[in-house]
Amino acid sequence: MDMIQVVGFGLVATVLVLIVKEQKAPVAFLLAAFAGIVIFLALIGKISEIIAMLERLADQSNVNMVFFQTILKIIGIAYIAEFGAQVVRDAGQEAIASKIELAGKVLIMVLAIPIISVIVETVMKLMPA
Length: 129
Description:
Elements: H1 3-23, H2 25-42, H3 44-60, H4 65-90, H5 94-126
Helix pairs in contact: 1-2, 4-5
């Protein structure tokens, strides 16, 4: 799906949501969530291409694949948390959206701790005793 198609689909979905929202707000929310999921699914092919390209680059540069996979997980958590928070925010639940973002940040920090530990250990080895 090209960018013009994504924007066109988004605009049509927005108009439909605005029309339906006056009569049945829950249906409008479901329509908005469905539109978001369709756009996300349309981008999965592109995301797969990006991940494959990054894996090739990491393999060529001899980057430890454990760290590379951890970074991909962190990026995935960030995108999923953002998407989930926006869907919940569209439903008017700002407090829950904030909690989803907080959970995403905590999970990212948990995944980043081993990488941060290795960086700190490397720096400590480089410093004179």
